[in-house]
Amino acid sequence: MSTQQNSGNPTMRTPQLDRADARLKHAEGIGGTVSAFIDRVRSGDLGSLPVIVGLVVIWTVFTSLNPIFLSPNNLVNLLFDCSTVGVISLGIVCVLMLGEIDLSVGSMSGVASAFIGVLWVNMGVPLPIAVGGALALGIAIGAAYALLRTHLGMPSFVSTLAGLLALLGLQLYMLGSTGSINLPYGSAIVNFGQLMIMPAWLSHTLALLPGIALLVMGMRTRRKRQAANLSSRSVNGLVLRAAVATVGFEVAAFYLNQGRGVPWMFGLFVLLVVIMNYAFVRTKWGRSMKAVGGNAEAARRSGINVTRIYLSAFMLCSFFASLSGVLSAARLASASQQAGTGDVNLNAIAAAVIGGTSLFGGRGSAWSALLGIIVIQSIANGLTLLNLSSSLRYMITGAVLAIAVIVDSLARQSRVSHGRA
Amino acid sequence: MTEHSTNPEKTGAILSLKGVSKNFGAVSALTDIELDIHPGEIVALVGDNGAGKSTLVKILAGVHQPSSGTILFEGQPVTMSGPADALKLGIATVFQDLALCENLDVVANIFLGQEKNAWHLDEVAMEVRSWELLNELAARIPSVREPVASLSGGQRQTVAIARSLLLEPKIIMLDEPTAALGVAQTAEVLNLVERVRDKGLGVIMISHNMEDVRAVADRIVVLRLGRNNGVFTPDASNQELVGAITGAADNAVSRRASRLSPSAASEGARP
Predict the structure, then answer these.
(1) Domain-by-domain residue ranges, chain A?
(2) Is-contact A181 A175, C-beta < 8 A?
(3) How far is B125 from chain A (nearest CA, A)?
(4) Which residues of A touch B149 (CB under 8 A)?
(5) Which end of chain A is more exposed for a tag (fewer CB within 10 A), N or C?
């Protein structure tokens, strides 16, 4: 029935509202979907293609160099590591969406972990209050960046670079002469960061959810669109997508359960990604974010409170950075001077860009944080397995970031010349 | 169309400006401006650079507030303290640069800042409404789910006009709607402007292009150095118009003609 409807026999029914124009090509059937996809990629609308290609290449290379790379337990570790930096990336997506940047996210996460160490371990403040304090500090600093940007016109590049240094200083000051504070093993937060794994049955159940969600929501949208005389996806396509998603996630869950299983911390990260994805795609706030990133003046004239959008983006970014600081303190069972330094900053930004969020604003998705961080952490993890020195690791990660930004710029130029902005 | 000119409503302007002046410090940008807009008519606002057209548009859009004088909307004096007030009254503005977000699709642009259901966007309802608006304008947009960047200049203008119609305004102001367009696209936009008028809206069109103005306007209001400098019908000669705009014909005769012309204009508006 779906094919009949899409082939649009004019004698049988009036054209759908959005299919009345004869000039527009419509993807029909599987062949049409494939050729539409190729057209999109050619015009620079790459979507998650670079990530998938990158992942395949990276995993193939590392597995051939060291078969341990693909072992279930190594992948479980990979997911633990992804969760901490990935949460920062999620915040970075928010500011990149506006065409802004936050370079201080690494230091912010370092400050948050030092905060936990000093308040909870050294001063005996209850853990929830210490965590709440760290997150509140993050939100306050994000607000400061936003106000500097909107009221004083200070480019976020500069204000957050200043913040990077200032926060690093604060981190060193808080940790004092000891330099590092150990979090007690056996405490809930350290267990969460190192040990807590979902039971196998739960991970398999959760792996069913994306497929079910795709199918149920797809069918609902389809019904609504048909009722409104708009074109809609075919049932076959929906079922196929749902089936592919279900099989994929079930296989992944099964494979990870051969090792330790799916970490709760990764579950938390994915939950945050899903929430942010909803916010970006389905809420007025998300639409306003994209509008401000695309054309701030147009957004202002259509009644969007641009200052508030900037505030929300920077506050979310710093909030996620400090949450990541808490998570990484749990992961490492310590708050140290090294927390959040080194390549954390750039990894978080690179992950968002590699995942497909544009540095130039107006384009991005929450999924890019998840996909990008898996690429970045795969590289870091694989290089560690090869016992390469950190000098080489930095150079290789730097090269990957450069390639990601080049791909982004080229894709953007191509989009402009193909009229897809 | 003719029913509008015979309609008693014709005398009841939706919007009238009475002695509106605007000073920026020592500079008087507008002095004693009188302007009436009736439902279902296109008023072209012409004048040289610095004549005060943009200031007038900004006052009507709520961006500036007049220094003196009153604005009557449907007979009631109103004050507009911001763009939101103007929108609420039913005065929509299509800016010269269109103010579209190129990275968003047509639906998102039409509903920008006015999305249905803030916490769970109703995409289907918004898409249906977008098609309704575009179809009312007999617009030819291939797909409303393509980013605006992929549209031509005329199509973008259509989207901007459709967006201004979203809140069901009573008056639309178009600032240089044809300035950046080619011949065919200009004709399309002029058709569009006429369709908006035929919906019974008042249209204020600002343009430097006398040909366009003459093609669609029911009345041509000339501003010069911040003052009314005559109201003409579209069949006024080019010489008269240019004279009024540049001030070459600024004499007692033309001023007398302009005082008498509002009544003449409404009769001669639609031959």
Answers:
(1) 50-196+263-417
(2) yes
(3) 8
(4) 415-416, 419-421
(5) N
> A17 to chain B, minimum CA–CA distance in Å?
7
Residue B228, beta-bridge partner list: B223
Asked if A282 and B121 come within 8 Å (Cβ–Cβ), the reply is yes
Instruction: Name the residue among A187, A185, A181, A115 with its Cα closest to residue A336.
Output: A181
Show the tokens assigned to A333: 């069972």
Q: Does B84 touch chain A (CB under 8 A)?
A: yes
Phi and psi torsions of A82, nearest 5°: -60, -40
Cβ distance A303 to B84 less than 8 Å, yes or no, reads: yes
Q: Is B141 on the interface with A (CB under 8 A)?
A: yes
A16, A18, A281: which to substitute to probe chain B, counting the most B Cβ within 10 Å?
A: A18
Task: Check A230 against B83: CB less than 8 A apart.
Answer: no
- CB neighbours of residue B138 within 10 Å: 11
Q: What are the structural domains, with CATH classification, of chain B?
A: 2-90+169-268 (3.40.50.300)
Which of B120, B125, B140 is opposite residue A282, by nearest beta carbon?
Answer: B120
Contact A284 B101 (CB under 8 A): no
pLDDT at B271: 42
Check if the beta carbon of residue B181 is closer than 8 Å to that of residue B110: no
pLDDT of the residue at A119: 94
Tell if the CB–CB gap between A287 and B104 is shorter than 8 Å. Answer: yes
Distance from CA of A295 to the nearest CA of B (A): 5
Task: Dig out the tokens for A222 from the structure.
Answer: 């389809």
Q: Which residues of B touch A291 (CB under 8 A)?
A: 101, 104, 108, 112-113
Using the 8-state DSSP alphabet, how is residue A283 labeled? S
Percent of chain B whose predicted confidence (pLDDT) is above 70: 87
Asked if residue B250 has pLDDT above 60, the reply is no
Q: Which residue of A has its CA nearest to B146?
A: A420
Q: Going residue by residue through chain A, which has 421 residues, state the pLDDT in tens, using 9 for 90 and above.
A: 334 444 444 444 566 777 776 666 666 666 667 777 788 777 777 767 778 888 898 899 999 999 999 999 999 999 999 999 999 999 999 999 999 999 999 999 999 999 999 999 999 999 999 999 999 999 999 999 999 999 999 999 999 999 999 999 999 999 988 788 999 998 999 999 998 999 999 999 999 999 999 999 999 999 999 998 888 888 888 899 899 999 999 999 999 999 999 999 999 999 999 999 999 999 999 999 999 999 998 888 887 889 999 999 999 999 999 999 999 999 999 999 888 888 898 899 989 988 888 888 898 999 999 999 999 999 889 998 998 888 888 888 788 878 878 887 888 788 777 766 5
Report CB contact under 8 Å: B150, A363. no
Sorting pLDDT into bands at 50, 70 and 90, what band is B212?
A: confident
Q: Would you call B144 an interface residue with chain A, using a CB distance cutoff of 8 Å?
A: yes
Helix (H, G, I), strand (E, B) or coil at B203: strand
Q: Can you name the CATH fold of A50-196+263-417?
A: ABC transporter involved in vitamin B12 uptake, BtuC (1.10.3470)
Could you tell me if B43 and B204 are in contact, meaning their C-beta atoms sit under 8 angstroms apart? yes
Q: What is the ipTM of this complex?
A: 0.86
Starting at the edge strand that comes first in sequence, how are the strands of the sheet with B27-37 ordered? B27-37, B15-24, B68-73, B76-78
Smallest Cα distance from A303 to chain B, Å:
6
Chain A CA closest to residue B163: A302
CA distance B143 to B158: 13
Amino acid A420: pLDDT: 65
CB contact under 8 A, B124 and A224: yes
